[in-house]
Amino acid sequence: MSAATILLIIMWIFAAVFFVVLVRDVLAHKDELDKTKMGYNSLISLIANFFDTLGIGSYAIATSAWKFNKSVRDDLIPGTLNVAFGIPICVEATITMTRIEMDSLTLVLMIAAAIIGSILGAKIISRLDVMKIRVVMGVALIIVAAITLCKINAVGPFGILGTARGLEGGMLVVGVIANFILGILMTAGIGLYAPCMAIVLLLGMSADVAFPVMMGSCAYLCPACGITFIKEGKYNRASTIPMIFTGAIGVLIAGFIVTSLPLTVLTYLVCVVMVICAIMFFNDARRQKN
Q1: Distance CA 95, CA 252 (A)
Q2: Mean of the per-residue pLDDT values for the chain?
Q3: What CA–CA distance (Å, rounded) separates 201 from 162?
Q4: 87: exposed, middle or buried (C-beta count within 10 Å: 0-12, 13-18, 19+)?
Q5: How many Å apart are CA 145 and CA 83, to the nearest integer?
Q6: Which of 17, 79, 184, 250 could hold 121 in an S-S bridge, CB 3.0 to 4.6 Å?
């Protein structure tokens, strides 16, 4: 049995435990649920996870959509991203991790580092007030927009073509530390995909190796940090379970039906929306401060 298969089995056991914790929390607060935006949020989850599977990313799309429609409170956005998208990302990981071969030790250590980083990050983010969350989300969107533009234009590390299937020695240490930091940033709304691909390419690995690292890291870290957000009550309880199901449907459609799309123009549009949304977060934070 390969390391990827073992990781997937453990991942789904962990995801099942995570889902039980989530359902119990939602049921315990069933009388407090505001379902007015549930349909909209569920649709956004389907769309975001569909494009996530095709490589654009889900966090920035969902964050922008929720901000524009005010369908998720600003202080609940980081937690909702990690709780609602955790299981759809597990579906993504199942599709990709079985298709691409890479060094087992590199994969396991980089995923473990991301998990530890996410648990630490969730404890920090879940305790921030609304103004700080808005600033963090604004900065996150600007960073993601810049990295995304570099990615689609093959700028910087995205123009490097590596061949390695894994890392050794000092390079492995650098990769593990980098993924630990990305795990922390993931809880603040900075998607792990594009930054992780940049690191993989900078360290000389093949571009396709980024996919099991990215998907595997997210599939483990979202439920891991999601449990913290659930215990703190820092997520949108009403919409999360429906978003899990529609998000998984979006992943399956992209993974097995629509396997590729001409996404360049759409990606540029998403970057513009991210910048506008970041400005909105900064403006709201400034108003609150005043």
Answers
A1: 9
A2: 86
A3: 6
A4: buried
A5: 23
A6: 184
* pLDDT, tens only, 130-150: 788 888 888 888 887 888 788
pTM of structure: 0.81
DSSP string across 18-60: HHHHHHHHHHHTGGG---TTHHHHHHHHHHHHHHHHTTS-SHH
**Distance, CA of 18 to CA of 9 (rounded, Å):** 14
Residue that the structure tokens 């922008």 belong to: 64
Residue holding tokens 């360049």?
A: 264
Residue 259: its pLDDT value, please? 62
Where helices occur in the chain by DSSP H, the ranges are 3-28, 38-53, 59-69, 77-84, 86-97, 104-125, 130-152, 169-186, 193-202, 210-232, 237-252, 264-289
Residue 191 CA: distances (Å) to CA of 62, 66, 96, 222, 227: 11, 16, 18, 11, 18
Determine the distance from the C-alpha atom of residue 12 to the mean position of all C-alpha atoms in its chain, rounded to a whole number.
Answer: 17
Distant-in-sequence, close-in-space partners of 146: CB < 8 Å, separation ≥ 6 = none
Between CA 54 and CA 51 the distance in angstroms is 5
Which of 1-5, 200-204, 261-265 tops mean pLDDT?
Answer: 200-204
pLDDT in tens, 141-186: 888 788 878 877 888 777 777 788 888 899 999 999 999 998 888 8
290, pLDDT greater than 70: no
Q: How far apart are CA 196 and CA 210, in angstroms?
A: 7
